[in-house]
Amino acid sequence: MAQRLQVSITLSGLGRLFGTSLYGVVETAAAAEAAGIDQIAVPDHLAIGPRTDRYPYGRFPLPPDEPWLEPLVALGAIAGATRRIRLATGVLIAPLRPALLLAKALATLDVLSQGRLDVGVGIGWQPEEYAASGVPFEGRAARMDDQLRACRALWSGAPASFRSPTVHFDDLRCLPLPVQPGGPPIWFGVAPTAHNARRIAELGAGWLPIGGDLEEIARGAAALRRAFERAGRDPATLGVRANAPSPDALPKLREAGVTIASFALARWASSRAELPALFERLGALPR
User: Fold this and answer.
1) What are phi and psi of 85, to 5 degrees?
2) Torsion angle, CA of 211/121/35/270, rounded to 10 degrees?
């Protein structure tokens, strides 16, 4: 039997939908859960600089004064208001956070949500964000790999030791351990290059395609499944969360290898009043 295609919503367009009443995102997450949505995702920017024209994936989709909630804090609040829906970052700019703090925050959220966390990570595109955080922009991908390997070490038992070019520690106890064995699943928002395929096969559970072209997604998913096989992993366990071009596109997404269809609220709703009907429609989609 084919795996059930799941539906995820991303909390975006918050300024337009909620204005200054941002607690509404918590109530919205509870409403999404009640409607049968499988996952809720929170994107990440610590700050937005003046050069959104350098956004590498086309026109930057949101205005410069858009509010960006810190994802892990927001998901902590959502965890307390929900019981079933999975909680995701989409994507967390991991290198902006120290490895030890990242491991602790993610483990804490996994524990308090009773094992509902999915961690989408990426390296970001704004040099200004890195400079303001005191973190070098160059070499951020390699530092993210070191971070995530360090997290895996800390999540696997205590005491933990780890050595890499950018992260190292000996005999640390970073408790509590996550509820999910080995830690929450890690999903990578990266291009499906050969290097990234090896990275995901080593460290990841899933892939977050950057673009929405279904043929490219299908090719990327196939390449990642081959990388899983080469790494001795079951290729059927690869997760792929991709933006849905329309609610009617789920069969095409499934054919492309997508396992989670993602809907960003900024695209699909122009006001908060539209959300109940949107959630009802998405929750009732045949999958």
Assistant:
1) -60, 140
2) -50
How confident is the model at residue 1, as a pLDDT?
Answer: 45
Number of continuous H segments (helices) and E segments (strands) in the chain: 11, 11
- CA-to-CA distance for 26 and 24, rounded, in angstroms? 5
Show the tokens assigned to 274: 């539209």
Q: Which CATH number fits domain 6-283: 3.40.50.360, 3.20.20.30, 3.40.50.2300, 3.30.70.360?
A: 3.20.20.30
Q: Note the Cα 54 to chain centre separation in Å.
A: 22
Domains of the chain, by residue range, sit at 6-283
Q: Sorting pLDDT into bands at 50, 70 and 90, what band is 286?
A: confident
Q: How many CB atoms sit inside 10 A of residue 70's CB?
A: 14
CB 67 within 8 A of CB 22: yes
Question: Measured between alpha carbons, how far is 222 from 18 in angstroms, rounded to an integer?
Answer: 39
Decide if pLDDT at 120 tops 90.
yes
DSSP string for residues in 180-193: STTSS-EEE-S---
- Measured at the CA of 99, the angle between CA 98 and CA 103, to 5 degrees, comes to 120
Residue 2's pLDDT is 59
Contacts within 8 Å (CB) and 24+ apart, 232-241: 233/201, 236/3, 237/205, 238/205, 238/206, 238/207, 239/185, 239/187, 239/205, 239/206, 239/207, 240/206, 240/207, 240/208, 240/209, 241/8, 241/39, 241/88, 241/90, 241/120, 241/187, 241/206, 241/207, 241/208
Kindly report, residue by residue over 17-46, the tens digit of the pLDDT: 999 999 999 999 999 999 999 999 999 999
Sorting pLDDT into bands at 50, 70 and 90, what band is 3? confident
Radius of gyration of the chain (CA): 18
Please give the structure tokens belonging to residue 217.
């997604």
